[in-house]
Design brief:
Length: about 500
């Protein structure tokens, strides 16, 4: 595996879009295709052209976008499907037919002999038109092995360029996948590709074992989205191949987090914070022992062979009830705040008291506690002092917000419109800083404290300045607009304080 070159075939735009509840626009698909090309994937499965005119046009636009990645279209072993791929200007046609008895009998109602004939004719038709061809034996992992090899040999003899072995319903174990791919590799001369589903949470492991057994290409999706429980996740598969096995890919791993966030935004499918590689907590530490070790040497409680910088992430020291003195001291020093040993001990104690009540500790909480302990009035250090917020909205009105604030003692008024009252209010708050408004909203989260219509809105905001420093702040208010505005103002004041 050391230095073995592995090709990455991304099917986010095809299988990924089959995620229940996900529907991408043509413009979103094109933007995602450009991002995948930037990421360095070798092949992009842009869609299933025969499925609709819209999908066909989308695939065609991606095919003609001048990407370095090879653009692929999916087709059944039917002439009309393959023609739709030709008309979409793809560089590779991925054709498939069910080969397992359960799918062959109940979905296409064909004999084994008929399936072989259909597969061969499809491959020959594609090759006669001068295009590359990938063939998939759909549900290969539930297909009788001898028959599966018969099909693969037949399409290989017909001129197929790549064989795909799909674990269509995710039933393989890593050891079984290894044995299967080894058996296929003994009989097949052309490159072997695998497409693993995640029904038992084994898609990445099965993909890695397939490569170890002889496969040279993996099919993956961003964030592991796809049918049912999804597909093998690109970031986990690629980092497993490169960091653990020492294999080579064309993936520019520093764009993994950036690409993951784009897919999150466009699909609405949010990742759990503990998602490997790209999740919010992938390089976050709270435990006192862990934080102390990582701050001294990151390899103590991180893999070492994979750093946050490698995948476009940042290391985060999160404060909470497990926080140690070293982590708090480092957080304060990074903001230019010094506390003596006794003061630091008191700050840590108060932070733990707050966390033990179930509250997530933000930078605003830390600095508020620190200011109190050090005897400083935090209000004296605020650049922005909010005076007035008013919002107009309704079914026939464009949501509009007006914000009045004191900026360094000077009164400023700003107004803006938005998609909703919260969006309008946040835009107006950002406008009051004018040219000093150089930060990026990294995170915005709203939670309801207790139930009912009178629930308190708890808003959590993360902001990043031009230096790459991220601060977090929170505000709670029965009015969701005011909670959002107050949280943003708190975070902006923290960034200004850091800058000064």
């Amino acid at each position: 595996m050391q230095n073995k070159k592995i090709s990455v075939f991304d099917t986010t735009l095809r299988d990924g879009e089959q995620t229940p509840g996900v529907s991408l626009t043509s413009s979103q698909k094109l933007e995602i295709a450009h991002q995948l090309d930037k990421l360095g994937v070798d092949m992009i499965e842009a869609g299933f052209p025969i499925s609709s005119e819209g999908d066909k046009e989308s695939v065609k636009s991606i095919s003609n976008a001048g990407l370095d990645s090879v653009v692929c279209g999916l087709a059944r072993v039917l002439t009309k499907d393959i023609d739709a791929c030709f008309e979409s200007d793809v560089g590779l046609v991925h054709t498939f037919v069910p080969t397992s008895d359960v799918q062959r009998v109940y979905t296409i109602k064909k004999s084994r002999e008929e399936v072989v004939e259909l597969a061969v004719k499809a491959v020959e038709y594609i090759k006669d038109h001068g295009l590359k061809c990938m063939f998939s034996a759909m549900d290969a992992t539930r297909t009788e092995p001898a028959y599966m090899l018969e099909v693969f040999k037949a399409v290989q003899d017909a001129g197929c360029d790549i064989i795909n072995v799909p674990d269509t319903v995710g039933v393989m174990s890593p050891s079984a996948m290894c044995r299967m791919i080894k058996d296929v590799a003994k009989e097949i001369r052309i490159p072997i590709d695998v497409h693993c589903h995640n029904d038992f949470g084994l898609a990445v492991a099965n993909s890695l074992m397939a490569v170890e057994a002889g496969a040279s290409q993996v099919q993956v999706t961003i964030n592991g989205i796809g049918e049912r429980a999804g597909n093998a996740d690109l970031s986990q598969t690629v980092m497993g191949l490169t960091a653990i096995y020492g294999a080579k890919t064309n993936i520019r791993t520093e764009y993994l987090v950036e690409t993951s966030k784009m897919i999150e935004n466009y699909t609405g499918v949010r990742l759990p914070p503990n998602t490997p590689v790209v999740g919010q907590n992938a390089f976050s530490h709270e435990s006192g022992i862990h934080s102390h070790g990582v701050l001294e040497k990151s390899d103590t409680f991180e893999p070492g062979i994979m750093t946050p910088e490698m995948v476009g992430h940042r290391r985060r020291i999160v404060l909470g009830k497990h926080t140690g003195t070293h982590a708090v001291k480092t957080s304060l020093e990074s903001a230019g705040i010094k506390a003596n040993e006794k003061q630091l001990e008191e700050i840590v104690c108060k932070i733990k008291e707050i966390a033990n009540k179930g509250k997530q500790i933000t930078d605003a909480d830390l600095f508020a506690v620190t200011s109190a302990v050090l005897g400083k009035a935090s209000s004296e250090e605020e650049l922005i002092k909010l005076k007035e917020v008013s919002v107009m909205t309704g079914n026939i009105l464009t949501p509009t917000a007006v914000v009045k604030a004191s900026i360094g003692g000077k009164e400023v008024i700003a107004a803006n419109t938005g998609l909703g009252p919260v969006d309008a209010a946040l835009k107006a708050v950002r406008d009051i800083l004018g040219e000093r408004n150089r930060f990026k909203l990294q995170e915005f989260r709203i939670d309801a404290i207790s139930g009912g219509a009178d629930a308190l809105a708890d808003v959590y905001i993360g902001l990043e300045n031009e230096k790459g420093r991220i601060v977090t702040a929170r505000a709670a208010n029965p009015d969701i607009v005011m909670a959002s505005v107050e949280a943003l103002v708190n975070a902006m004041n923290l960034l200004y304080k850091d800058k000064t």
